[in-house]
Amino acid sequence: MALRSAPLLLLVLVLVALRESCFGASSHSLKYLYTSISDPSQGQQPHFVNLGYVDDEVFVHYDSHSRRVKPRVSWMEKVGKEDPQYWDRETQKSSGQEEMFRDHLETLRIRYNQSEGLHTWQLMYGCELQRDGSKRGFDQYGYEGRTFITFDKETLTYVAPDPQAQITQRNWDAIPGHNERNKSYLEGICIEWLEKYLSYGKETLLRTETPKVTVSSRTEVEDGMETHICRVDGFYPREIDATWRRDGEVWLEETFHGSVAPNADGTYHYWLSIRIDPKERSRYRCHVEHDGLQEPLDLELKEPSNSKSNLGLIIGCVVAALVLACAIAGTLIFLKRCQTNYNSAPSE
Fold it and tell me: In the chain, how many H helices and how many E strands?
């Protein structure tokens, strides 16, 4: 059966996994995304997908069509050689989750008093090993693209935002040892697997790519202010510190920035802009720090290339307007003289 729901599936993944992600950029992370979608047109069988990520790279994949966990990167071939049971074990786990998610979807549909149709149930969990050696873990579920329940490993309890989710919260918190095991996995086993995966894919995951930094500028015709855009491209890993500095200090006023986004080749790009008075241009720098740089980079701002052209354009327009006015005046005078001469000419 064709993967007809794939675009919708990716959209829902973005809604829960990206919009409501607990963390920003991290040193290294291991994350799993499980998504189950019910669709009557597919015989009431939810479509199920499990994606595993190391940092931002998908390294394993399972869905209800293949019913098999498969590698998505070449370096995962090493796992099967060292642990021959790995793929069977992971497939069994994902298959069990697929059946469980199907049951959860039906339970929540009834609990929310919803009709049959398209509904989504998701799980996102994983861990992070940060640059300073600290460890973090997260475990949260989403229903219909919204957070349903989240695990708080500090209090060893689940947090639920609405009454329907609080039923699940009470049930899960009441399972003996469930929350303790969950915390142990997030802070221990998950980190161990993350380190193992990093060792398998170190040529890719532990590499560094030097950022390419450029600054483009323009003058705003309306008020004469300048907009400068600092673009940082082609860097890896994802973590980067790019800021505007005024007199050496971080400057946030009249600044904007995008999000760190991936390129097709696995590197990342980022941009930030600032709007300033051209008289203070020399005070500002685009400051970039990254593992691919031997030392921080400071790019000074230059006069926008369109400043002089704008001035020339304005002067040109004024001169053109004066020439046109003179031409019109000359034409009127010429026509008036012609009319006078015509009126004074003797008749035949």
Answer: 8, 17
Residue 7 reports pLDDT greater than 90: no
CA distances (Å), origin 19, targets 12, 22, 23, 93: 10, 9, 10, 27
Q: What is the pTM of this model?
A: 0.74
The SS3 call for residue 27 is coil
Cβ 62 vs Cβ 91: under 8 Å: yes
Task: List the structure tokens of 194.
Answer: 């993350």
Neighbouring residues of 66: CB distance < 8 A, sequence distance ≥ 6: none
- Pair of tokens at residue 191: 């980190």
SS (H, E, C) 175-234: CCCHHHHHHHHHHHHHHHHHHHHHHHCHHHHCCCECCEEEEEEEECCCCCCEEEEEEEEE
At residue 220, the pLDDT reads: 87
- Cα torsion through 311, 317, 318, 319, rounded to 10: 110
Cα first-last separation, the chain: 98
DSSP state at residue 282: G
